[in-house]
Design a protein that fits this description.
There is one protein chain. The chain has 255 residues and is of the alpha+beta class. It has nine helices and nine strands. The protein has helices spanning 6-16, 27-34, 38-51, 68-80, 83-98, 140-146, 151-157, 175-188, 230-250; strands spanning 25-26, 54-56, 63-66, 101-108, 111-118, 133-135, 191-194, 201-209, 215-224. A hairpin with a 2-residue loop joins strand 4 (101-108) and strand 5. The two termini are 26 Å apart.
Length: 255
């Protein structure tokens, strides 16, 4: 990394304070939150005002809010954003971090359709490929996406289905069992596929959200069953949750 210019860094630190949904801040508040001298904050705020990245809050004296220039800059970024490329890049990053196969899928009714797959350097035969469709209840990505539905939406989706089609002897085959698993998935924040779509593979999956807070896709890490014990499961769950969170942010969620 090259040289960091302290004054520029402080300016961005001031702008970062508004990520916490803070509508406006005074100079003393900025100084206190960043631990900076008030004279330094005074100069930084005046510079940001002159550049249009901050503006005076007309409803409250001596307080400042984000300026329209921030919106313009964000609009330029959003216009060039390619979600498919962002998803691929995120999947590649996660795969490199753990050297495992990473996949992404979207939900289509009671099925999931795989849109991204990045293979690890190790050999693992999967039943899924980009463009393939599998029952949501048999996959980690599917169960994760089902967990983003409300109980009423989930009930309506499977209302006329008593016994579900299984892909392996471990697959969920009843709606009652599926509802229980979806509830557990919501609670822990990630989904788990225990050889339910492939007898020899386990996976963990996490949700990806778009800028409006809607579920966009699910990301999973898949490994051979023999290589995932309870410790590895927790480790990979953390990795995929972090990767999905970073991708969601790239897509505008929480910004």
């Amino acid at each position: 990394m090259g040289k960091i210019i302290p004054s520029v860094k402080r300016a961005f630190d001031i702008l970062d304070l508004f990520f916490a949904n803070t509508h406006s801040l005074s100079k003393p508040e900025i100084a206190a939150r960043l631990g900076l001298p008030r004279t330094c904050v005074h100069e930084q705020v005046n510079t940001l005002l002159a550049s249009g990245y901050l503006e005076m809050d007309e409803t409250q004296p001596n307080r400042f809010r984000l300026g329209f220039r921030v919106f313009e800059l964000g609009s330029v970024f959003a216009a060039r954003l390619d979600p498919s490329q962002e998803c691929l890049r995120a999947a590649q990053d996660v795969s490199r971090s753990c050297d495992e196969t990473v996949q992404m899928a979207v939900r289509d009714g009671r099925d999931v359709v795989f849109i991204i797959r990045v293979d690890s350097s190790r050999t693992l035969r999967l039943v899924s490929a980009v463009g393939s469709r599998l029952p949501a209840h048999c996959t980690g990505v599917g169960k994760m996406l089902l967990a983003t539905l409300s109980d009423r939406e989930l009930e309506a989706l499977y209302k006329k289905h008593g016994r579900l089609l299984g892909m392996t002897r471990r697959s969920i085959t009843s709606v009652t069992q599926l509802v229980k698993e979806v509830s557990a998935t919501r609670e822990r924040g990630y989904a788990y596929d225990d050889c339910e779509s492939n007898e020899d593979a386990r996976c963990v999956a996490a949700p990806v959200y778009d800028r409006d807070g809607n579920p966009y896709a699910a990301m999973s890490i898949t490994v051979p069953a023999t290589r995932m014990d309870s410790r590895r499961k927790i480790e990979l769950a953390g990795i995929v949750q972090l990767g999905a969170k970073k991708l969601s942010r790239r897509l505008g969620y929480g910004v």
